[in-house]
Hints:
Elements: H1 3-8, E1 27-37, E2 40-51, E3 55-64, E4 70-80, E5 85-94, E6 97-106, E7 109-116, E8 119-126, E9 132-133, H2 142-149, E10 157-162, E11 166-182, E12 185-196, E13 203-209, E14 215-220, E15 225-229, H3 230-233, E16 237-239, E17 247-253, E18 258-264, E19 273-279, E20 290-291, E21 294-295, H4 296-306, E22 310-314, H5 331-346, E23 351-361, H6 363-374, E24 380-384, H7 391-405, H8 410-429, H9 446-453, H10 456-459, E25 467-472, H11 481-493, E26 499-504, H12 532-546
Parallel strand pairs: 9-10, 19-22, 19-23, 23-24, 24-25, 25-26
Antiparallel strand pairs: 1-2, 1-15, 2-3, 3-4, 4-5, 5-6, 6-7, 7-8, 10-11, 11-12, 11-16, 12-13, 13-14, 14-15, 17-18, 18-22, 20-21
Helix pairs in contact: 5-6, 7-8, 7-9
Amino acid sequence: MSRVHSIWALVGFLATTPLAAAQPATGTTTSGYVVFLSGSPIGREDVTVERTAESLTISGRERLGAPLNVAVQNAEVKYRADWTPVSMNLSGQVRGRFFSLKVAFAGTEATVDANDEGTITTKTDKVSPKTIMVPNLFFGAYEALSQRLSSAQAGASLFAYVAPQTEIPVRVVKVESDRVQTGRVVLSLRRHTIAMPSPGGELMMQVTSDEAGHLVRLTVPVQGLDIVREDVAASSSRMLTHSNPTDEPVTIPAEGFNIAGTLTMPKKPAAKNPAVILLAGSNVTDRDSVVAGIAIMSQLAGSLADAGYVVLRFDKRGTGQSGGRAEAATIADFANDARVALRWIAGRKDVDPKRIALVGHSEGAAVALVTAGKDGKVAAVASISGPGTTGAELVLEQQQHQLDLAKATPEERQQKVELQKAIQDAVLSGTGWDKVPKEYRSADTPWFQSYLQYDPAKTLKDVNQPLLILQGELDQQVPATHADKLGALAKKTSKSKSVEVVTVKGVNHLLVPATTGEVTEYGTLADRTVSRDLTKSLVDWLGRTLAGK
């Protein structure tokens, strides 16, 4: 691959496109966007949109920190009023290397001039007359896509020009309504799920627009990438993708910061109710655990409350409306926060302190086990899609699966596996970073180290509570074999007198019905309701387990 293409491929094959749309009013608007990667803010963009009777111009600046390390000093994309593309100009630095990109459109041709640290390339691509410009390095350009999508319906076929690579086909998979509360104002939003080809299969994205068609949010779930308009990204705002009738916001004092959460009450509460604390997985930005439009924890909370439980879910430290610092957080820190939540809910007059269970999903399952091993106030633990091996082993297993899907050659496989092992060894030991390319050294974080070090065999030695291990049969992120591994470890090493393993057929990692269970399928799923078979297994087990407490 040439040096030029190595820069343009930095963020991935991000692309998308549109149909005819209502024309927004003329005028100029300026918006700020916060860029998140795996739930952590890494930078921002300032975007200006100027619409006249003759044209639409989108311009802006961008600065992203590690691991992307991008600074766009000048960006401008321009269209005629009828959405014919006119030009695109970008310039800045990627990891300290200068780049510039100029594209001029004439009919069905796009002439590209790219400068990568002095290496200049020129080419001409065939494009559609109304193609949408979506450069990898400037997300503000998706404003045009957002406006064009404002009247598009599911099933529409579109085209987008991923400058400077090529034009690709895009289809609208689903159109849904969203609401977001910013302070006391509730915004009505429209979210389009879009599919486009990529080397590893179809790539799914969500483009969320406000009532005027302006870009509010751009999400690429599989990459953990989220670009959110400032008013929606503010700590005072929260997406209301899913809510329950008895939800109420709560604030839990922690050491040096507050934890923001939601308490879901039974419709007919008793004087003393059993309680459940839900613990979310990794790459989740809020208490509802929304992934690909599926509010995992919010749905679980509703089902458990219907069964008579007081249910608490909360934003992780440094994310959503919770305080604290996400960049330094480890699994042990998340377990400490869970203990804070445990003491808080145990102190409520309407909760029976002897009947409090922890239910963790994915990484949250690990946090639940760590917490249970440290705190006797936990009466029972449910692990949903929890790892049955060390984090280091699971990461390598996940990599092997992705290499299989990509049909990597033996040489490519060996090279990538060796690199992954070198990264993990360096993270765990703190040495050997000289063997790792600079662009991968951002993996050296406290959280990743704690995740690689996590070992259920060691953690379970301190667990004496009843344990339920729930697993989706089609889970491709934490494969179903992990349930049996975790169950075997629990029976061998824990002090628990009750260990149950339940595998739910036809369910993926997001706990909803699926066909293949692959990540690339998430955005196309027709049923976005957490499996009733799974929730029934959980509710039945909790009822049996907590009844005698």
